[in-house]
Amino acid sequence: MAFVKDMLRMWAHSWKRFISIAMITLLGVAVLTGIYAGCRDAFRSTDRFFDAQGLHDVQVLSTAGLSNGDIAALRKVNGVAKVQAERSQEVTFDLDGRKSATMQEIGTNGIDQPYLQEGRMPKKAGEIAVTRKFIRDSGKRIGSRLTVTPESASSDTSDTNGTDGTSGTNETNGTDEAPSFPTKLTIVGVVLDPQNLSNPDGYSAMTSFRSTATTDYTFFAPSDGVTGTLYTSATLLVKGAAAESTFDESYENTVKQVTDRIDGTVKTDRQKARRQELLDAGNRKIVDARAEADKKFADAQSQIDANRQQFNQQVDQIVSMQAGAAAAGAAANGANAGAAAAAGATTPQLDETTRETMRETIIAASPELTQAKQQLDQAQSQLNEQKASTEHTLKTKENELKTSIPQVRWYVQDRQSLGGFSALKSDLDSIQSLGNAFPIVFLLVAVMMSLTAMARMVEEDRSLIGTYVGLGYGRLAVASRYLLFALLACLIGGGLGLIAGFLGIPAFLLVVLQGMYVMPGLRLEYDWLYGSLGIALFVVGVLAATIYACVQEMRQTPAALMRPKAPRAGSRILLERIRPVWNRMGFLGKVTARNIFRFKSRLIMTVGGVAGCTALIVCGLAINDTVADLGIKQYRDVYQYDLMVVSDDSDASAMRTKVASDGRVTSSLDVRIESGDLTVAGSGDGDSGKAGSSGSESIQLVAVPEKHLSDLGEMVTLQPVSSGILGTSGVGKTGSLKLDDDGVIVAQSAASVLGVKAGSKVRLTNGDGVQATAKVSAVNRNLIGSDVYVSETYYAKLFDSKDTKSAKDSKGSKDSEALTWNAMLAKLSGSDTSQTDYAESLEEDSSVMKAVSCAHMADSFKFDLMGAVVALIVALAGGLALVVLFTLANTNVSERVREMATLKVLGFFDREVHHYVNREMMILTVMGVILGLPLGRLVGGMLTMALNMPSLYFEVEVKPLSYVIAAVATMAFALLVQLFVNPVLDRIDPISSLKSVE
Question: Which pLDDT score is estimated for 723?
Answer without folding.
Answer: 59
